[in-house]
Structure formats: structure tokens, C-alpha cells
Amino acid sequence: MNCEIISVGTELLLGDIVNTNAQYLSKRLSDLGIDVYNQTVVGDNLNRLVESLSIASNRADIIITTGGLGPTDDDLTKLGIAKALGVEMILDESSLKKIKGYFNKLNKTMPIINERQAYIPLGSQAVENNNGTAPGIIGEYGKNIYIALPGPPKEMKLMFEESIVPYLRQKSKSNIKSRTIKVIGIGESMIQEKLGDMMINQKNPTVALYAKEGEVHIRITAKEEDIEKADYKIKEVENVILGMFSEDIYGFDGDTLESVVNGLLQKKNKTIAFAESCTGGMISSRYTDIPNASISFLNGVVCYSNEAKINILGVNRETIEKHGAVSMETAEEMAVGIKRISKSDIGISITGIAGPSGGTESKPVGLCYIGLAMDNEVKVYSYIFNGNRAKIRWLASTKALDILRRAILALKE
């Protein structure tokens, strides 16, 4: 079975709100073994809504709408469905009673305008809204299933999980399972080249690449009636990919680079401290987003100015005067300094030119030095990142975390 999602609301077209409903529904429908081939956004216009519904009915088995179920004149979704199907709107007495009950609980009289929410297309059934006034609908018409959900995400999600998921489980004969493998340090094109025939001849499971900032995700997806068979097929492909990329794979599914690093540090019983210049605390911020990060993370210092590097970390003034704040030598002393003042097992430093100005021919925008002080040894890595200021800072913080990850993996038990 395949589905089309139609999101209704002029505010979506204007960019006033982000369409998180479609993202949520696509993910959950995939979990249920239902393919989503198309998503449509249409404004609060009855004729265009009817047109979109008619187009969807010819290419999808299931049409799910979100939004447009309120009581005002621009809430046209159910009427649009009725017109697209050529059926009349009828009053659902049970829905009207529940809407009135909602207002009674608030010690308010239901406005007359809310009565229109109780009307549904003939042949459909109302779906109770346990988090608002607007009921949804489910209707089976010929080869098509129409489902109308409210627009507010809290209402939509609750209705979908409580009422629509059980209904769709009965309709779907397939299970779609996915596994995401997260790779860092190798570009998308190189990964695709290594995967070769696996990408070209794929059928079931499929393998897809998703380029992210500083990393690439490989998603393996299998579709089977038997969920254990889907898991088996995914595992076969996963094992092949693991053999190809080894330590360039940092995690799976919901893992983040920082959460993996935290787990490795705790497993090795090691502590970390960061000294940041051009990233301005971004590494520390990412790291402290992790629950229980305090077990491994001792300290983070933003040493943006030369004086801060000298006075807080103990970088020699002569080092900065001779080599500059953005230099291998300064990064080395920053890493040693943060390790010393924090009494941590590992010190990471980063200094660079995030731009857009400040670059020179010998030290261009994007140049970053990352220092690693560990076990009485200091290593400094040099990189030139491309992009705007925000991207350079993100890529630098990602690279620093990956350097740390690989260093921990290399530690002897």
C-alpha cells in the first residue's frame, strides 16, 4: 500500500510554520510498512484542495490530510474531501455531543460556529479527538482510504497513534524495517564507490546514502511480511558494510557522535576537558546535551582572545607572538593547558579562522588546528574546512570529537 500526505494550510505555504506533521507521519507510516511516494502542501482554498485530493486518489491507496478541521471559514478539509468524492456532508451527532462536552468541562458554552466541526462526509466515520475539539475522519471509498487529521501536532499525533495506527495495521501486510549506519571521515561519493554493486543492484533490502554536515548516513531498508525476515536481510547487508568501513563507522540509528564519545570515555574510565577558541563553546555544548555527560566531562573553557589563552590556559605569550593564535604551536599549548588546569585524562583544543574575514594567503578562512593531549603526548591536526562561519564551526567541532573518538578506540585495555 502507498500513501499521499496532504498538508492543508496557507501558513505552511508562507513559511510561517514548519511542516513537522508530514515528517512525523512519513516516519510512522514507514514503520507500518506503508510507502509514502508523494507529499503535497495546499493552502486554504477549496478548489485547489479538491484538485489535490483528486490527483492523490489516482496515485495513492491512502490519502491522509492534516489541518483544516477547525471551526472557521478557512477550515475546509472535510468539505474538500466530500466535494472530491461527490458526497454530501452530514451531521455526526456523536461528534457534536463530544464537542459540547469539551466546552462543558471548561464551564463554557459552545460557540455555534463549532457545530460545523461535527459535520463529516457521507460514508465516513468520525475519529474522536482526545486533545481538542476537531474530530478527524476515516472513510473507505472504492480503492481509496481517506483519513483527515487535525493540524496542531499534539492533537494530530495523539489521534494518529490512538485511532489510525490500529486501523492501518489491519490494512498493511508488510513491515518496513530500517537500520542507519553512521560513517565519519569518508565522503558520500567515496562511500558510494566502495558500495558499488550493492547500490546499483539493490532491490530488497535497499541501501541509501544521506549526506549530513561532516558525516554520511547509510540507511538499509527491508520490506517483508515477516519482521524477523526483514531483520535478517538487514543484518546480512550491515555485516558487509561493517567490514568495509570499520572504525569510520561511529554509531547506529539514534547515536550521535558526542553520545558515542561519552560512552567510550566512561567505558575506559577517562575524563575530558575542552579548550575552544573559534568554536566558541560548541563542542562543550554538544557534549553537555548528553545525559550523564558529567561523568566524563570535567571542564570547558572558551579562550577567544589571546589574553585568555595566556592567562587561563598558560599559553606562552612568545608562542602567540611568533606563530600566531591560529597555529599548531598554540593549539598544542592550549591542549596541554586545559588538561593541566582541569586535571583531566585528555585535553582537546581548537583554534582557527571561522571567517568570513580574518584569513590570509598562508592562513585562509576555514583553517583550524585541533590539539589532543593524552598520556604525556600531544598531537596537533590541521584542517581547512569549507563553508560559511556556522558550517566551519560545526565541522571543526565534529572533527575534534571524531579525533577524540579514534584516540579512545586506540587505547589499550
Describe this structure in words.
This protein is α/β, with parallel strands linked by helices and 413 residues long. The chain has 15 helices and 17 strands. It has helices at 10-13, 20-31, 46-59, 77-85, 93-105, 153-171, 188-195, 197-200, 227-245, 257-268, 282-288, 306-313, 317-323, 328-342, 389-409, and strands spanning 2-8, 35-42, 62-66, 89-91, 119-121, 124-127, 136-141, 144-149, 175-184, 206-212, 215-224, 249-252, 272-276, 297-302, 346-352, 367-374, 377-384. It has a six-stranded mixed beta sheet, sandwiched between helices. It has a five-stranded mixed beta sheet with strand order 14-13-15-16-17, sandwiched between helices.
Question: Brief overview, please?
Answer:
This protein has 15 helices and 17 strands. It is an alpha/beta fold and 413 residues long.
Summarize the helices and strands and which ones pair or pack.
Elements: E1 2-8, H1 10-13, H2 20-31, E2 35-42, H3 46-59, E3 62-66, H4 77-85, E4 89-91, H5 93-105, E5 119-121, E6 124-127, E7 136-141, E8 144-149, H6 153-171, E9 175-184, H7 188-195, H8 197-200, E10 206-212, E11 215-224, H9 227-245, E12 249-252, H10 257-268, E13 272-276, H11 282-288, E14 297-302, H12 306-313, H13 317-323, H14 328-342, E15 346-352, E16 367-374, E17 377-384, H15 389-409
Query: Can you list the strand order of the major beta sheet?
Result: 2-1-3-8-7-6
**Spatial gap, N to C terminus:** 51 Å
Would you tell me the overall average pLDDT? Answer: 94
Provide the number of structural domains.
Answer: 3
- Largest beta-sheet characterization: 6 strands, mixed
E-strand count = 17
CATH superfamily of the largest domain: MoaB/Mog-like domain
For this structure, the quaternary state is single chain
Family: Belongs to the CinA family.
Pfam families: CinA, CinA_KH, MoCF_biosynth
Protein name: Putative competence-damage inducible protein
Domain MoaB/Mog: 4-171
